[in-house]
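Quick one: C-alpha cells for this chain, please?
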Amino acid sequence: MYRMGQYLLRDSRVHQLDPRIKIVSVILMSILVLYGEPVTQSMITLFLMVLLPLSRTGIRPIQQALKPMLIFFAFLFFLHLFFTHGTPIPPFPSWRVTLTYEGLYTGAFTTWQFLLLVVTAAFLTMTTSPSELVGAIERLLRPFKRMGLPSDDVAMMISLALRFVPTLLEEIARTRDAQTARGARFNQGGILQRLRAISSLVLPVILSTLRRADALAVAMEARGYGGGDRTMLQELSLRRADYVAMTLMGLFAGAGFMTCTSLGQTLWPVFSQPS
C-alpha cells in the first residue's frame, strides 16, 4: 500500500529527469495553483493527467495518497460552503449559517486547489528518491552559503521531514489497529464519539514519533554523521532531456501565469513601467 511521501522505483522518463528540474517545476506549479483562475487549474489538471502515464506510477498510488486527506478536503469544502456570505441557494432558508452560491463556488475551487497541491507533491516524492532530493536541495541552496545558510544541513532536514511522512502515516494506522483490537470503535456512534475516539490516537502517535526520532538521531551519530560540506556519490548534471523538460515547463508556466488574473494584475504595473 502506497503512503504519501514514499518513493516508487520505476523506469520512466520522469524518474530519469534531474531532481532540480522537478523541484523547481513543483514550486512553479504550486504558485500557479495558488494564484490561478479556473482556466489555470484546468490546464494544471490536464498536465498532471498527461504526466501520470509518463511517470508509470499508476492511478492507485495517487488515490492512496489522497485518502488520508479526504476529511480535510471535506472540512475545507463545507467550511466555505456554510460560512461564505452571498446569495442563498433557493431551497434553503436564510439563517445565520446558510448555503450560498458564492460559498459553493469558493469551497469547490479551494478544495480543487489543495487537491492539485497534494497530487503535485505526490508526483515529486513518487519519482524522486530521498538521496536525489537531498542532493538537489543542497545544490539549489548552495548559492545561499555566502549568506551563512548551511545548505547541507537544511537539505538533510527537509529530506528527513519528507521521509517521516509515510512513517507517521504508518504509525497512525498501526496504533489505530492496535486500539481497534482492544475494543475501540472509530466508525461507530455520532460525530462527537468518533472525534473522541480519534483523539485517543494523538498521544500514542506523538510518543512513538519521538522514540523514532531519537532512534534516528542515535543511528546517525553511531555512523559518524556530522554537519558541513559533503560529497555526493553521483554529481548532478543536466542532460538533453532535462533541457527539453525545462523548456516545456517554462512555456507551460508562462502560459499559466498569463491566465492568472490576480497575479497578473499585481505584477503588470511593476513590469510595465518604463525603465
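Residues 267-275 have pLDDT under 50 and may be disordered.
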